Amino acid sequence: MINKLKPKSEFSRNVLTLMTGTTIAQAIPITISPILTRIYTPEDFGIFALYMAFISIGAAVVTGKYEMAILLPKKNENAKYLVVISIFLTICFSILLYIIYYIFFKEINNILNIEDKFNYFYLVPIGIFLFAFYNILLQWMNRQKEYKLMTKNRFIQASSIALFQLLIGTIKKLSLGLVIADIIGRIIAIVLIFKSVFSQIKIDNFSLKKLIYLIKRYKKFPKWEMPATVLNIASFQMPYIFIPILFTSSIAGFYFLVFRVLMMPIGLIGNAILEVFKNRAIDDFNKYNSCKEIYKKIFLLLLAVGIIPTFILVFFAQEIFAFTFGEAWREAGVYAQILAPFALLRLISAPLSFVFFIREKLELDLLIQFIFLILVLTSLVISYFYSSSSIVLVSSLSISGCIFYIIQIIVSYRLSYVK
Q1: How far apart are CA 302 and CA 353, in angstroms?
Q2: DSSP-based three-state secondary structure for 417
Q3: Per-residue pLDDT tens over the stretch 294-322
Q4: Neighbouring residues of 142: CB distance < 8 A, sequence distance ≥ 6
Q5: Mean pLDDT, the chain, integer
Q6: Tally of CA atoms within 13 A in the half-sphere of 163 that contains its CB
Q7: Alpha helices of 259-389 — where are they, by DSSP H?
Q8: Residue 277 in contact with residue 294, Cβ under 8 Å?
Q9: φ and ψ at residue 417, rounded to 5 degrees
Q10: Hey, which residues does 417 pair with through a beta bridge?
Q11: What residues have CB less than 8 Å from 172, skipping those under 6 apart?
């Protein structure tokens, strides 16, 4: 009976491995969230949200998005060069950011309204480097189909961050405790993963000519995909910047908690499937000039995974949040109810949108991301001029996200096959 329940295909086994590992890894920070909300203030969460916004955007820039091309070359040797290119760019731009901040730190602090006791920005270049470097290594492991190692390392990173967030908050209360713990956890994960893959990515006979050739060969990624990614991340992170201006830091804390506790697990399930979908879709397209069958299979799988949690959020999110985090966090449950359809479409679209990379339709992806940015900006403008209610803001953001992901799903499906 046990043998019958085991996944038969390699694809199903890989999906199960990544889904199980990432779900367990994400269960750790979700489990400690009720404790963290009692250790750290909404303002502390607001600082952490701003820090994550900056490193998310920065990490999308410093690599030139060359790490997204690591899966594409047929030869492993060419993929190694793309790893080197990505790491080199990450190091250079992270150092450059430190130099810029060192020279203009007063002006930057004034623009961002950073107080000395809450000065998190000097940690941003470190966070950007760690965030980008880790993503590069994950792309290489995905190419090598090291799914068990990926799962194990994600668990180590999540548990390390959670542990240090608790320790710092309990032993010595620091406003930057969430940020410092995040950095420590990422360092631990990178050290362990780098020891495992260093021998794999090492290039014995380095060729500058080949390096330059590959930079030119995949120039579409920094030219088109990098701005598209920045637009996408900025669209998600702008609310963390503008909500404190339009309303209060507490509302920003509520909004951040919704994404941390609810949308991140949903996103991680999608990302687990994405890691496997990448290789299978590329193989199918190389063989059959189409990945439509695996596209439809993944669409139905993600819909089945996400539909029940979506209904639970719509009907019971307020009670869940009030019970888990305390009555003071009930308003976050209201936001979760509103954002539930947005989360479902995000779960479905995130893996399937990789078809844009396979077809190298990066200009089209950039256009769609620009539309999303306009939708988010429109939501912020509507909330600013026509209502003082945070519910209107969250509802507008949810509608904007739904429109964006519906467009992305339709277009990516059309790209999944060649007519």
Answers
A1: 13
A2: strand
A3: 888 889 988 988 899 889 999 998 898 88
A4: 71, 150, 275, 278, 279
A5: 82
A6: 11
A7: 264-288, 292-325, 330-352, 355-358, 362-386
A8: yes
A9: -145, 155
A10: 290
A11: none
